[in-house]
Amino acid sequence: MIEFKFTAEKLNGQLISGTLSARSSTDGKKRIYGLAEKNQLKVKRIEKKSTYLYRVRRGREKPITGEQKAYSKKEVEDALSRMGYEVLSVNKKLLDLHLNPPTSEIVTFVKISAELLEQKLPYSEILTLLINDTQNKTLKETLKEINNELKKGADSEATFLKYQSVFGKFTSYMLGLASKSGNMTEIYRATAKFLERQQEFKKNLRSALITPLITLFVLFIAVLFYVGYIFPATAKLFVRFNIPLPPMTAFTLKMSDFLMGNPILIISVLVIPIFIFWRFAKTKKGGYLVDKWILKIPIVGSLIHKTVIEVYCRVFYTLYSGSAESIEPIRIAAEAAGNKYFEDRIKNVAIPLMVKKGTGITDAFEASGVFTDTAISRLHSGEESGTIKNTSLQIANYYESETVYRLKNFIELVQVFIAMIIMVVMILLTLVSAETATIHPKVPGEAKRINIEQQYFGHIV
């Protein structure tokens, strides 16, 4: 998120200033001018918070360097002067790139925080410890800013949501909510568990799908190179001398000529559909339909579906209190599930049934059509016995165990399948090469000799 500070003038000439955060410079300026138009203000100045590199010295000590975020160069110079430093130079950082920290860093931060909270350590001290030990620069700077804002009395939820581009929307919400909940340790522990499961599932899914796809792609490129460049060098030598080619060799040569003669068509067939699908999946409707289709894919769809339910139930367990304010936890849990179709069905089917018609939680969930029969059956039992919160945790743990086991078996099955494909391709290439090796060019005079022999034996007959 980018922070902006703006100065505007009222109709009576009074100057006012304010700050806001936005995802981009364009969005920030658009929001500022929108506020100005709504409140009849004239925007005088807009400043974006940037990183400045400074070099200062105190007395005769050795100069020191550092960096500081601020809205202007003067703001940095004034702050350093007030601290008793002689400012030697202050310059805006040219390449102010902030790559998001890896998920593993976020998981480590949340998990360690949960462990230290269990030891009754004050949260401000926890942040100070983690700021000193965190290696990732972006996360370190983010934690510093969060710590400073919390010390000034800022709202924890608003503060963490401000940095959702670093933590993610759900994690930011959970960490911001933790300070207000009165059960900070449990929420941090549940968030860490959620992030770990999400990271583990993505890693296993990559092993099951992405790695095999890359293997098949590399194999395809290798076969394409063989058929397009290596094989024709030998096969066309026989064609040049009018030597008849065996069936597989002739077919492979035709394929080679087609591939080499239509490179644009081949690239278009391979690249354009993937690009169109990627762009379609980025749209709101496309993302909804893709997530809906994913749940219907044989084997993999069932695993993803159960993992989505597991994540939902785990978050629902953490946030659900059984009080009248139960709609918000249901909505947040749906967003955390990570599937747009699942989220849409909960928000636009289940929640309206509960709010407008007073339908029970389980019946509303069943009407959404995104829960398995097993989950609905267990939730019905939990609702009837008044233990729906604990039942949700049981469902999450059950599906976690099942998906981990089934995904492991699926990965092994995929690896065997890929090995078989590689074996079949290698056998075919070997057969084509072996068939080519059996071609014998005719020696000079052999055709004439064969013709004479045929005429001689024909005359005798």
Q: How would you sum up this structure, described in words?
A:
- With 461 residues, the chain is mainly alpha-helical.
- It is 70% helix and 10% strand.
- The chain contains 19 helices and 6 strands.
- The protein has a 3-stranded antiparallel sheet with strand order 2-1-3, covered by helices on one side. Strands 5-4-6 form a 3-stranded antiparallel sheet, with helices on one face.
- The protein is extended and about 95 Å long.
Keywords:
single chain, about 450 residues, three-stranded antiparallel β-sheet, 19 helices, 6 strands, about 10% strand
Quick description:
It is built from 19 helices and 6 strands. With 461 residues, the chain is mainly α. The strands form 2 sheets. The protein has a 3-stranded antiparallel β-sheet with strand order 2-1-3, with helices on one face. Strands 5-4-6 form a 3-stranded antiparallel β-sheet, with helices on one face.
Poorly predicted ranges: none
Helix content: over 70%
**End-to-end distance, in Å?**
97 Å
What overall form do the CA principal axes indicate?
extended
State the major sheet: 3 strands, antiparallel
Blueprint of the fold:
Elements: E1 2-9, E2 15-22, H1 25-38, E3 42-48, E4 50-57, E5 64-70, H2 73-82, E6 86-92, H3 103-118, H4 123-133, H5 137-151, H6 156-161, H7 164-167, H8 169-181, H9 184-240, H10 247-261, H11 263-282, H12 284-294, H13 300-319, H14 327-336, H15 340-356, H16 361-368, H17 373-385, H18 388-437, H19 446-460
Antiparallel strand pairs: 1-2, 1-3, 4-5, 4-6
